[in-house]
Amino acid sequence: MATPYLTVVGLGSGDPDQMTLGVWRRLQAAKKIFVRTAEHPAMSMLLEIGMEYTSFDTLYEQHDSFPDVYKAIAEALISETKSMSTSVDEPIIYAVPGHPMVAERTVQLLREQCPEAGIELQIIGGESFLDQAFISLGIDPIEGFALLDAAELQPSLLQPQLHTLIGQVYDAFTASDVKLALMERYPDDYEVVVGHALGVASQQQIIRVPLYELDRTPGYGNLSLIWVPRSDDAALRNRSFERLHEIVSILRSPEGCPWDQEQTHQSIRKNFIEELYEALEAIDNDDPDAMQEEFGDVILQVMLHSQMEEETGAFSVYDVIQSLNEKLIFRHPHVFGDVDASNSEEALVNWEQMKAEEKRIKGTDVSRTSVLDGIPPDLPALMKAYKLQKKAAKVGFDWDELGPVLAKIEEELAELRAAITSQSEEEQASELGDLLFAVVNASRFIHADPEEALSRTNKKFRSRFEYIEEQLRISGKNFDQTDLTEMDRWWEEAKRQS
Asked: Strand 224-228 to strand 191-196: parallel, antiparallel, or no bridges (unpaired)?
């Protein structure tokens, strides 16, 4: 049985004169011609001489997404080719706009599926829309450029130092999605260029607009693209993670900052803790401007510690990011896998199960580990007590209700009172610790984080005490000129006002 042949040709980027002579000859010798779309200027040449063809335009109306359309086209072409007697000299022709290997998903599908179907696939190039974009827009690709698909555009793909061409901008809705993605990296008024039918003399339009007007520009269709000119503007580069990595590596280099060069993990360890607390303060104050700054300071600590390890060859910050991404995906099978979780409790169960699975994969002997493992030794005591109790409770070491917990607090309070009258300061401190531990236990039963609860009380105390200070200033007094009775009266006033 003869091998069936399917030939894919490119019709050029638009103007009929851009079609190559080789493609034209192939079309004339074809047994049958299919075209992805008849909405292309080069089709006028076929119509002029009465050349028959079958268009797949109707499939765009029958399916809800472009991937479904492309899949259907590939399946139809393979079926037609296998059902007909074709040869290398008289093949079935599939004609696509531009170049077959540029932004043509159907061709990629055919490359994957034709060998399995026993079909000989031949691809013949044509002028792509890139050729006309370089000419009409004056782009020299040696300066660096990126070609991106409007349907799959993500802010992470954008690199301002490269010319960026965005193809397949079929309508204003797609242009709107492109605009939103670009606004993640570029100012709202950044000038972008819309090109319609580049290279087609009677239809070409080149329109320069500020980014915020991108989806308000009429004329989008099958031959539209968007060009974002390259820029060396430091403000644009500074919005990228790569620039942050570059800056930190420069600071640590021999040509960098003497202070940064001298630092070690231990020398800036306390900075990490301080920056975290400052970030927490910004969160507690619900201050977005402060959050933006303080979160950056926390990230800087991660970058500095990672850079130190990169210099030794141990790992880089990109390894840190990779590990984190893989952990998040692995521990969320209910999001990235086929496991179900209808509420947060089920999600946490999945999380813990996947943590245990991670230990098994890493070869950790679970039988020789403690239930209480995994709590950082430097965690503040109040937070550590809370975590210790939660871990113990998971294996049943816990009361069933709040009553016995409150009774335990009363018991520990009585022991503290007794210790104050008859025991040493060290023993008194020990009893105080027992009381605090029992109070933390109560916080779990009322679903209150003890650290957060105490932080709110600290903030409340500060506010009321500052009210006392203000009343002293108003009265022209200082603390030496007042007494507890007067201060307590102002304290009660502050309580009533809060």
From this structure: antiparallel
DSSP 151-164: GG--GGG--TTSEE
Among candidates 101, 107, 111, which has minimal Cα distance to 34?
107
Q: Are residues 450 and 440 in contact, defined by beta-carbon separation less than 8 angstroms?
A: yes
SS (H, E, C) 381-421: HHHHHHHHHHHHHHCCCCCCCHHHHHHHHHHHHHHHHHHHH
What CA–CA distances, in Å, run from 67 to 151, 400, 459?
10, 55, 56
d(CA 247, CA 461): 42
Query: Across residues 379-392, what is the average pLDDT?
Result: 87
Q: How far, in Å, are 31, 44, 46 from residue 51 at the CA level?
A: 11, 10, 5
CA 245 to each of CA 71, 118, 258, 272, 318: distance values in angstroms, whole numbers, following the listed order:
41, 50, 18, 18, 9
194, containing H or E segment:
strand 191-196
The whole-angstrom separation of Cα 7 and Cα 453 is 72
Residue 184 tokens read as 């993640």
pLDDT tens figures, 315-373: 999 999 999 999 889 888 888 887 887 787 777 777 777 777 777 777 666 565 777 87
H or E stretch covering 244: helix 241-252
- pTM over 0.85? The answer is no
